[in-house]
Amino acid sequence: MGTFGERVRNRRKEKDITLEKIEEETGISNSNLSKIERNKISPSLNAAIMISNCLDESLDYLAKGIVKYDELNAGQQELIEGYNLLDENNQHALKAYTAFLLSQKYLLKEVLNKTRAPEPAPDPEPEPIKEEKRVYLPILGTAAAGTPILTEELLEGFLSVPTAKINKNSFLIRVKGESMIEAGINTGDLVIINPQPTVETGEIALVKVAGEVTIKKFHLVDSEVRLKPANCSMKDIVVNDLTKIKVLGKVIGVIPAEEANQNMIHEFNGPNE
Question: Are 38 and 97 in contact, with CB atoms under 8 Å apart?
């Protein structure tokens, strides 16, 4: 941080004040002033006060290197200006003390917290990803998304699916045809079926018609059932004899063909979880 003499010399040169000028105002000889600046002699308290007055510099700075408030940089002054919100009687003492801390390169938490915006709260720790419970369902043949066809009484394989929404009797059916493409069900896809004897109007169902099965939107109006395709180029299937139609289950999910074929297994030897 330097000595008294070095700080006097630096301030004197910064302010373009000559030794002769200080000698004229203080009565301290040019020779002694030179020795003070070169640390050959130490000034008396009275001489130090006169030199500080002549240089218009605080004695605290010349003697100890304590920076005056007005000479702090803009960021430091902005820090201290926060004290203007405090009690007026405390402002001078707090500014002086903060200037001392800054000059010594000590920034106490208590000082900073009075003027600095609070630190943002740390981002919450991400919750661990919970492993989704899955179960293997059997792929029980094929149903038409087009003209009804006879379901194949063959077990094609097994596929692991999430347990959400399914029940213990759920199964998979492979789709054939294009009548449900506007509902995102394409030929080769697997649909998840929850077995149930009825569905709401407008729901997609696996339906048996005169011994054959199909996948369509189910609409019951009075004593007539309309099986509506999700393909504007195809017509409804109209069933007037309700004894010839049976709801086998509701379609609750679709697994694209590519995903299904990649993950399907042909044998399953372990219990479902």
Answer: no
Can you give the pLDDT of all 273 residues of the chain as single tens digits? 578 888 899 888 988 999 999 999 999 999 999 999 998 898 888 888 899 889 988 877 787 776 554 555 555 555 555 555 445 555 555 555 555 555 544 444 444 454 445 566 666 666 565 667 888 888 887 776 655 544 445 678 888 888 877 887 888 888 989 999 999 999 999 999 999 999 999 999 999 887 788 999 999 888 899 999 999 999 999 999 888 899 989 999 999 999 888 888 877 665 555
Angle between helices 88-103 and 74-81 (to 10 degrees): 150
Selected catalytic residue, list 58, 103, 170, 179: 179
Sorted by where each starts, the structural domains of the chain and their CATH numbers stand as 1-65 (1.10.260.40), 67-116 (no CATH), 135-263 (2.10.109.10)
3-state secondary structure of 103: helix
Q: Please report how many Cα atoms fall inside a 13 Å half-sphere around the Cα of residue 260, on the Cβ side.
A: 22
Contact assessment for residue 193 and residue 173, using Cβ atoms and an 8 Å cutoff:
yes
Residue 183 burial (10 A CB sphere; 0-12, 13-18, 19+): middle
DSSP string, 217-236: EEEEETTEEEEE-S-TTSPP
CA distance 212 to 216: 13
Q: Which candidate in 95, 176, 216, 250 is catalytic? A: 216
Nearest to 137 by CA among 7, 264, 4: 264
Name the DSSP letter for residue 149: B
Catalytic annotation present for 216: yes
Q: At what angle do helices 30-37 and 45-55 cross, to 10 degrees?
A: 90
Q: Is 179 a catalytic residue?
A: yes
